[in-house]
């Protein structure tokens, strides 16, 4: 409940409690609060026991924490034997490698002879967009009839 309270925050709360209630009333207040918390815990435990007895013997190992959807799914997946097969399948499939191969095929980085030339993007004519040598200062840019 109070997992995110640090030491400095706790000290500030204690100092505020001493200033507000005074050192003479603070022990009685702490005793009253601890008794109230104890009564609330007893009430909740009794309510849980009543619900378990009303549900019957088939729900004797029922836990109220299982009502949390995340805990429910985690518990049932841990009991399931198919989880091991899913982990093996997930380990054998490298998504990054597959995406890299598809991207290479789309960008024609690796021309494969078994794939038709039209799929690789090469129609037999040189690709004017990919020049390996820089143009000379007096050269005109290549003419592309499809671009005009």
From TrEMBL:
| Localization, UniProt | Cell membrane; Membrane
| Presence of the UniProt keyword Metal-binding in the record | no
Record's keyword terms, sorted: Cell membrane, Membrane, Protein transport, Translocation, Transmembrane, Transmembrane helix, Transport
* Ranges that cross the membrane: 6-22
Stated membrane topology is: Single-pass membrane protein
- Tell me which domain of life the UniProt entry assigns to the organism this sequence originates from: Bacteria
**Disordered as annotated region, ranges:** 107-148
InterPro entries documented for this protein: TatA/B/E, TatB
Q: Look up keyword Secreted and say if it applies.
A: no
Q: How does this chain assemble?
A: The Tat system comprises two distinct complexes: a TatABC complex, containing multiple copies of TatA, TatB and TatC subunits, and a separate TatA complex, containing only TatA subunits. Substrates initially bind to the TatABC complex, which probably triggers association of the separate TatA complex to form the active translocon.
- Describe the family membership recorded for this protein in Swiss-Prot or TrEMBL: Belongs to the TatB family.
Function description: Part of the twin-arginine translocation (Tat) system that transports large folded proteins containing a characteristic twin-arginine motif in their signal peptide across membranes. Together with TatC, TatB is part of a receptor directly interacting with Tat signal peptides. TatB may form an oligomeric binding site that transiently accommodates folded Tat precursor proteins before their translocation.
Matching entries from HAMAP family are given as:
TatB
In its UniProt entry, what is this protein called?
Answer: Sec-independent protein translocase protein TatB
Q: Which organism is it from?
A: Streptomyces lichenis
